[in-house]
Specification:
The protein is α/β, with parallel strands linked by helices. It folds into three domains: about 1-230, no CATH class; about 235-255 and about 545-640; about 275-335 and about 345-355 and about 365-395 and about 405-415 and about 460-490, Alkaline Phosphatase, subunit A. The protein contains 21 helices and 14 strands. Helix 1 (about 1-30) packs across helix 2, helix 1 (about 1-30) packs parallel to helix 3 and helix 2 packs across helix 8. The protein is globular, with a radius of gyration of 27 Å. The N and C termini lie far apart (about 75 Å).
């Protein structure tokens, strides 16, 4: 009996040791991101660390379930060789789990959330990520060093059995019964740890019950986030409203009958890597880093209160090109639904005779852009292979922005008009390098990314300078936006709304009426219905966004992070966990002042809207109905507005 207790106590000591190490990794995560969490009250910080232990217990229970087998009744577990092997395996599994927390301490800079299972899609679809590992280790050596140091401590002080091999115990009915009961008790503890006692298992969105959305990453840990999102490969279909009522609350079918005649204009969508609203002097009202972008914005219709629908590059294309928001753990293009039939700008315009193309200077296959281009009905893809000149290769991601954008302009001159095309820049991505001739031209800034932002902006200026002399230029509608926001300097842009703030602008050299600043809410998924409306597209189509040119359209922006949906409408923010509203406040207030908001009418309107959007989204993805009428003449269940 005594020897069996040794194994039980050893197991519990090891779990306690892991809880200490997880807390250390949470402290490390906080220290590296102290700027983002600079406004967290001390008591909230303390609460996040204490409550975080509950999520650490869940992660540890999941990752160490295998080792409960060493507590099965019997003398086999007293074998010293088995114990040594078990110690090594225990160390390796938990070292990898803890490494996730350390990697996220820096990766958080780029995605503002804990990593989820979508990281596997990113790594599987991107050889670039693997090629960048040496550069990451070089730039963030202190993260790797800190993890290694903690692992040395982990191994050195990891609880172990005494060196000598315990004597075998005689297994009697009494001892067997007792060991079975203890084993069942340990299983019960792990089950509670992994699941909890509520009807619904503990999940990512439960962290929002203990902290504001911005501070949720401090409560969570990366292994838990990854494990829980592995369970959510398929969407849960929401059923808040009967089908006939749903159509009254939200209808994704657009049909603009106000335009007089179709404009056979070219469309050029420029997606700027990591161009936060904060970086633009025109938009932020401060000294900016994008003079060339700002010069175009001054001639454009600019939406100064615009938001991305996601935080990662491969969430941007479906939103911008096809009006599909990122409302699940996996980005649409990496989900089980990525081969659904969708209506998109290039597909719809291509069916009316437009030439369609997409340009990205990265390695072909990067982010799955080439696959999504095919799914979206784009006829030509131009990547690093098509550019075919590695003298301009940046050594990491692809072709430098300046030569690639000039190549882009040159290719457009050869395309039949009208054409739809999009270009996605890449130089303002980590490791934030610039070509050798420009290293002294652009100064080092407060954030490393800003030097590369200046170079990308300079490249954009070179593109417009070249394109403006080409015959297709004046008959073109340009859309300028970013894929997502990036590292912030000001507190405003570290909020759960500011972290999505980006430029969205429409520029047409031949249309003097398409100018000015519009302060209403806008988002990436609004781009598709707005462009098609401007062109006078005559047919009904499906898109989740709104037509920004229609003053009577609803204006809102939706996003999803850390298991919580966020709806921005006017001055109000609503957070929804998939079942109920968790926060509602005026953005002029601090989130903790939500009890002071008394506007019940706007509350009910926003609650209805977010439920209707989520139900429509889940229904259309699960049942492959994200269209008005597909190629097989299957009709959408939604009706023309």
């Amino acid at each position: 009996m005594h020897h069996y207790f040794q194994h039980v106590i050893l197991f519990l000591k090891r779990l306690l040791w892991l809880l200490i190490l997880y807390t250390v990794s949470r402290i490390f995560f906080y220290v590296l991101n102290a700027g983002y969490f600079s406004d967290i009250p001390f008591l909230q910080l303390l609460k996040s660390f204490v409550v975080g232990i509950r999520f650490d217990i869940a992660a540890i229970s999941f990752t160490n379930i295998l080792f409960v087998l060493l507590l099965l009744p019997g003398n086999y577990k007293n074998n010293s060789t088995l114990q040594k092997a078990g110690s090594v395996v225990f160390f390796i599994i938990n070292a990898v789990a803890l490494m996730g927390n350390f990697v996220d301490a820096k990766f958080f800079d780029f995605i503002n959330k804990r990593s989820t299972s979508s990281i596997f899609s990113l790594m599987g679809a991107n050889r670039d990520v693997w090629l960048m590992i040496p550069q990451f280790l070089k730039d963030y050596w202190y993260v790797a060093f800190s993890w290694i140091l903690l692992m040395v401590v982990f191994w050195r002080w990891m609880p172990r059995l005494p060196v000598h091999e315990p004597e075998h115990e005689k297994i009697t009915f009494k001892t067997l019964t007792f060991q079975v009961m203890v084993f069942a008790g340990i299983i019960g503890i792990l089950f509670w740890g992994a699941r909890g006692t509520a009807l619904k298992p503990i999940g990512i969105n439960d962290a929002a019950n203990y902290a504001q959305l911005k501070f949720v990453p401090l409560v969570l840990n990366t292994p838990f986030s990854i494990i829980k999102t592995l369970e959510n490969e398929n969407l849960t279909e929401h059923n808040f409203f009967p089908e006939d009522v749903l159509k009254e609350h939200y209808n994704p079918i657009h049909h603009d009958t106000t335009s007089v005649g179709a404009k056979r204009m070219n469309v050029v969508v420029i997606i700027l890597e990591s161009f936060s609203k904060e970086y633009s002097g025109f938009l932020s009202g401060r000294a900016g880093y994008t003079p060339h972008l700002d010069s175009v914005l001054k001639q454009s219709l600019v939406f100064s209160n615009a938001y991305a629908n996601g935080t990662q590059s491969y969430e941007a294309l479906p939103a911008i090109i096809a009006g599909i928001p990122s409302l699940m753990e996996r980005p649409y293009s990496g989900s089980n639904y990525s081969d659904n039939y969708i209506e998109s700008m290039p597909r719809l315009l291509g069916e009316t005779g437009y030439h369609t193309s997409f340009f990205h200077g990265g390695n072909n296959g990067t982010m799955g852009f080439d696959n999504f281009a095919r799914i979206a009905g784009i006829s030509q893809y131009h990547g690093r292979d098509e550019y075919n000149n590695d003298a301009d290769y940046d050594g990491h991601w692809g072709i430098w922005d300046e030569p690639f954008l000039l190549y882009f302009a040159g290719q457009l001159e050869n395309f039949p008009q009208p054409f739809f095309t999009s270009v996605f820049t890449l130089s303002s991505h980590h490791p934030f390098n610039v070509p050798e001739p420009y290293k002294d031209q652009f100064p080092e800034e407060k954030l490393p990314i800003l030097k590369s932002i200046r170079y990308a902006d300079y490249s954009l200026g070179a593109f417009f300078d070249t394109a403006s002399r080409m015959p297709w230029f004046k008959n073109t509608l340009f859309v300028l936006t970013a894929d997502h926001a990036a590292q912030a300097m000001e507190k405003t842009y570290n909020s759960t709304t500011g972290m999505y703030a980006i430029p969205i602008a429409f520029y047409c050299p031949s249309d003097s009426s398409l100018k000015g600043i519009n302060t209403s809410v806008a988002q990436q998924i609004d781009i598709m219905p707005t462009v098609l409306s401007y062109l006078g597209f005559p047919h009904p189509f499906f898109a989740f966004g709104e037509n920004l040119l229609n003053p009577e359209s609803n204006r809102w922006a939706i996003s999803y992070i850390n298991g919580i949906y966020q709806l921005i409408q006017g001055d109000y923010i609503m957070l929804f966990n998939g079942e109920q509203v968790t926060s509602f406040y005026n953005k002029a207030m601090a989130p903790e002042q939500i009890d002071n908001v008394a506007e019940s009418a706007i509350y009910l309107e926003m609650e209805t809207r977010i439920k209707a959007i989520l139900q429509t989204f889940s229904f259309c993805l699960i049942h492959n109905r994200m269209f008005y009428q597909n190629k097989d003449m299957v009709q959408s269940p939604f009706e023309i507005k």
